[in-house]
## 1
Amino acid sequence: MAVTFPENQRASARAAFGLFNPEQGRRIFSRAHGSGHEPIVLEATPRTWYIQPGMVNVALFETDEGLLLVDAGCAGDGPALLQAVRSVSDKPLHTVVYTHGHSDHAFGLWAFLEAGETPRVVAHENVVAHFERYIKTAGLNARINGQLPGPDGKRWASEREDFVWPTEVFSDTLELTLGGERFVLRHGKGETDDATWLWAPERGVLAAGDLVTGYLPNAGNPKKVQRYAEEWADAAEEMAALRPEVIIPGHGELVTGADAIVDELQAMARYLRHIVDHALRGMNAGLLADEIVETLTIPEELAAHPRLPAVYDQPEFICRNVIRRYAGWWDGYPSSLLPAPRPQQAQEIAHLAGGVGALVDRAWSLADEDLRLACHVAEWAFLADRDDPRAQDCYEQILERRAALETGLMAQVNLRVSRYWVEAARSAGAAAATSGAR
Ligand SMILES: [Zn+2]
């Protein structure tokens, strides 16, 4: 891959996906597919552990009354997580807190229940709605997350028994006392609307879930439900005000040192607010979404911050997410209000250009000078005639070249969707040829 990050961001970019195993990533709800790695277990402060069983992190607090576990990892991480917990403490599992309802954080608890543990499960009230949304959109989620069937044949959690549901929910703040020690749960919004972060004041430890990950906040994912950049900034500032000594983040490495933590959280808030302000200013001035995104620039001190590399999401996507939050779906161009089908538009462009071949030639000649523009021309060629092998190759290769240059995973993954379209067109062509020969 051609992707490089500035020197000061490389460590965080490398750590971003932890012990990610693509086999597990494609069967995220399979209890039979773990990360295949020995979990990383670090004692962050006395009786407090950072555990990384796979792509995600878990926080463990030991108290005299029992264990407090923050998050439970992916379904397949459950057994390894249980072992990791038992390698440091034999106290009973008293309480589990879900930082949010995502597939990689709230699904490993089954292994503890099967081992006879009977914890209460505490979460923000919107986690219940999040799980219900998973059931409602199982097909959509399986597809956009590239999921394959697990041993039970399911590609996504789709029935009530696929979840370990919260037994106790809260809406804004909840204080727990375990073994005489205070733990404060605070609701925030960020990547999701159901987020909780946990503050252990006597230990100076904050378990942040995905509100802290060591990379640019995932606040703009192009295919997912609404994200909350403004509230994310609020939460970052609120966390910074506590001056934690340690943050156990939802992904990436353990973060230590109050000064570095405050610097990171404040930079994160400034970064998000910068994008939100730009989007709102543009919308209020009557600019179209494309114009707002096109004119977005990020100050160097934020773009180069060591803990905020755009390794997953990127500023343009966050900006569009803010626009979506406050405006409708229309891009503002009259022709796209009630548009002609894209293939028909592409055929008209091909006709004007003198054929699909002319579009393919033009796409290739643009590829070295303006790859972004070349993508459009290659797409017109492919949509004008999906059966044309030159258009297929051009579309596939130019989009792949673009994907390889992008730093963010979301951009790479979604540009590579072109591959599946081309593969589908090729196999449809092959099937038609076979049936024609009969
Ligand atoms: Zn996550």
Note: The chain has 17 helices and 13 strands.
## 2
Amino acid sequence: MITRRKTRQIHVGNVAVGGDAPITVQSMTTTKTADVDGTLAQVYALAGAGADIVRITCNEVEAAQGLAEIVPRSPVPIIADIHYQYRLALAALEAGVHGLRLNPGNIRKEDQIKSVAREAKDRGVPIRVGVNAGSLDKDLLDKYGSPVPQALVDSALIEIRYLQDVDFEDIKISVKHSNVPSMIESYRLLSETVDYPLHLGVTEAGPPPAGLIKSVAGIATLLNDGIGDTIRFSLTADPVEEAKAGRQLLENLGLRERKGLDLIACPSCGRAEVDVIAVATQAQTALEAENLPIQVAVMGCVVNGPGEAREADIGIAAGRGRGHLFIKGQVVRVVPESEMVEALLDEARKLVEEGVESRLAHAEAHAAEIAAAARDELIQIQGDANRSQDRRARVAEIARSD
Ligand code: SF4
């Protein structure tokens, strides 16, 4: 059970961030903001994949104009990402954005920051102080020699003071670093210093799988410490993957309710009666298209599959040319192996519609006995684990052949 650090709560549009609000997922569009329809299509895709808030760059006048059309049609709150030109922050506010991200390393003039804060305050719009190790304030880089955690935190604190000077408190903060231990240390340091909500991320994490691993290592470590109120995976990939990954991480940590599919699959072993990777991939594709909020198990053999995956809502295990469908570990249906993915999909739909008790009540007569017989037969055939006797004989036969 994770105990979250207490933070103030702010609102990005209708989404609460911090305090006791659920931890939110963010992502960022990669389209040109001036392309209103293209950007909106991506915003919808990101929202569908689990993003609660979407950030969009506001890097030119045409982008700010695009925001004026995008924001009213967006299904989720929109944050404008601002670098260098404070006037674009003012323009984005006029366009109706629900939040701003200011990079202290790129907008450094106090009067400009304060003028944005006054306007944001009048409109009730929060600001993220988005410090990034790669674009740290030059004075701090000179002072510390490199973007060490204390330098990132100092940058955030300087910016916060400017905001507080004009009574602006709707603040959240990020101190992103591409080096995971430095990122973790920066956020830990920051969380000891302020009680504003924190936006977590490993910057420039790169393409998956390495980018995913770095992001999970940094973000999950902090979440497990109770630090973090909103997260973003910064992947060099389709941003839909970022949103999915963020959502899945929170669901796996028990910090958000499951919204979509959770597919578990055994790693396969010598007992497998089917190509587990192929079946799991087919099942994932078919089930993801339906986006059913259940945990589904794909198991390579009926010897251990139903038992090992008894916590899953539904699953399938192969054996003796058949697929054994099970619900909460109890086998309810047996189908030819070639039909197992289709049957799994059909049963999954019914399970979501009718519930566990109803589907267990509809279990096929003898399904459990057929599965038990297949299991016993396999144990007889395989003997000790992984058919070692058969394999030894076959190895000897090959070794002795001419
Ligand atoms: S024993 Fe069966 S369920 Fe377990 S890993 Fe091997 S094939 Fe998969």
Note: The first strand starts at residue 9 and ends at 12.
## 3
Amino acid sequence: MTNAFSEPAWTPEQILAFWENEYEILGSPWRQAFLSNEYVQAMCLCHPENIRKAIQVRKKVKEALAYIYQIEDDVAGRNKRLLDDFHPSHAIGITNAHHGVRTTDPFDPKREDLLFKCVMCNLKLSLLRKSKIANLENTCKSCTGEDE
Ligand SMILES: [Zn+2]
């Protein structure tokens, strides 16, 4: 997961402040335990929006963290489904690129039907390079001087 948060990541102190606001003010020893708690530490790597949601429904920090991970899995799964549903061409494009299929590129050297062989220079060239002069068929524009 990334840390590209829309708001800054929370510190353990911020999580404690939110928790105390939701439930109860802790005594000093409990505060220290809360701040150094491994689940609270792990929570600092999560989005504050998800931390708020989780703490509001789960008082115990271990269960709150599990709740956050559940939210993140749901979001990741939903985003993947959105991409598949609404951008199928994106997935197809990736598949074709992997197979070296390029059907729309007129300069694709693998497209024999888009090529001709110049009788003057013997090069296989794109039809776009073919001479337009009527009596010089199968001659490229370089050989006829049409580029000038
Ligand atoms: Zn030529």
Note: The longest strand covers residues 115-117.
## 4
Amino acid sequence: MINNLELIKNQANWCLGCKSRPCSNACPMKTSIPEFIEKIKENKIEEAYNLLIENNIFSHVCSLVCPQENQCQGSCVRGIKSTPTQIGELEKFVNEWVVQNDIKPVVSQKQIKKNVKVAIVGGGPAGLACSYELVKNGVKSVVFEKEQVLGGILSYGIPDFRLDKKIIDRIINILKELGVEFRLGQELGKNISIKQLKEEYDYVFIGIGAELSSRYKLANERLDSIYDSDEFLRAYNFKNFIKNLGKVVVIGGGNVAMDSARSAVRMGAEKVSILYRRDRSHMPAREIELKETLNDGVEWVELTRVNNANVKDGKMVSVHCNKTQIIDGKAIDIEGEEFDYDADTVVFAIGLKPNQELLQSEGLELTEWGTILVDSNNQTSIENVYSGGDVTENKSVVCKALASGKKAAKSILNKIIEP
Ligand SMILES: Cc1cc2nc3c(=O)[nH]c(=O)nc-3n(C[C@H](O)[C@H](O)[C@H](O)COP(=O)(O)OP(=O)(O)OC[C@H]3O[C@@H](n4cnc5c(N)ncnc54)[C@H](O)[C@@H]3O)c2cc1C
Ligand code: SF4
């Protein structure tokens, strides 16, 4: 973290202020990067903040969790011959400076229209970004969220050592002050339905994410010590720590695997290992995340497929594995290279998918991947019902979920203006 103003200014001055804005174009939220950096150069940090927040209320979150090296920073022209401008660090600095100085955001808002009502189902990044864009443009929405907390994965998935939950609280408060209404404990498919919402609201947005963890069978008997990443991370985030984890094996190679392993360390596991079927150069996790995971003492075992669990007296004692090699990008088992790896607990972190059964029962058309089918305006197969975020896109990231929520809101606004 660059925390000295002089260092920050030096970093800002490294930016060339390119007119073609490759950094902004590579950002899913199209952040005004050269412009906010210019404000830092001019020592106008509050103005930089208002510029960021006007476009993206999750700016602070994005500065902490976005894979900048593949997005804005990855397109910075400075990076061609040297190091790219540290855009993420600059965005983080602006947001932290504002918190330290207790500055409130200045959000320009149009007068609220009394005759239009929008229902948003799911209070994660996609739903909240949608509500923000609408309320700024004078359209109020009601967010229906099944949990008792808002923020989705940002609250119960990404752990607090990566993302301080006070940041989410601050965002929710801004939304409340602008006029967004929240109803907690409201679950699509249980106490609400699209049909019913359509009767009461003019438009509906579905942003319920992808919550079902993928897993495969490790043993014939049911073992209590096998977890999905979702339940495992909720246990950590809600401080319901799982006791007596013993030796933990996390299966996977993405940021969910890293977060699960690091949470296992903090819940007191004796030893934590990540077993991944591919190698480091093929892992979906960011290199920096793996580095931090290794710093926490987690063992990284690559090119290893976990096939089944060895059970003794009803308890798992180890997992049976096969060494793999990468051929044409695929992990292929090497014949005869089998071994056992000590494990008392296993966490599956191999992917999340939407609840297809629920979506189909609500009458939504799905893609072949089981996500909600949307058109170029983010409208679903049902008229005036929009969608975005992980429920429409596989393997998404926060910034893309925000961008699709915002895009859906813009489509709704266009319809309101041109009925
Ligand atoms: C452990 C983990 C770590 C991650 N780390 C990163 C990272 O470092 N960087 C990054 O960019 N991305 C990361 N991601 C991905 C990112 O979190 C998601 O892409 C993003 O949260 C998707 O936003 P969303 O609003 O579509 O869904 P979600 O965040 O899943 O929010 C969906 C909301 O809908 C609610 N809901 C679900 N079902 C219903 C229902 N039936 N009725 C009403 N409400 C419902 C949920 O409770 C939730 O509040 C991570 C994901 C995970 C799981
Ligand atoms: S590409 Fe890099 S140097 Fe050019 S404006 Fe963006 S951050 Fe600045």
Note: DSSP finds 16 helices and 15 strands in the chain.
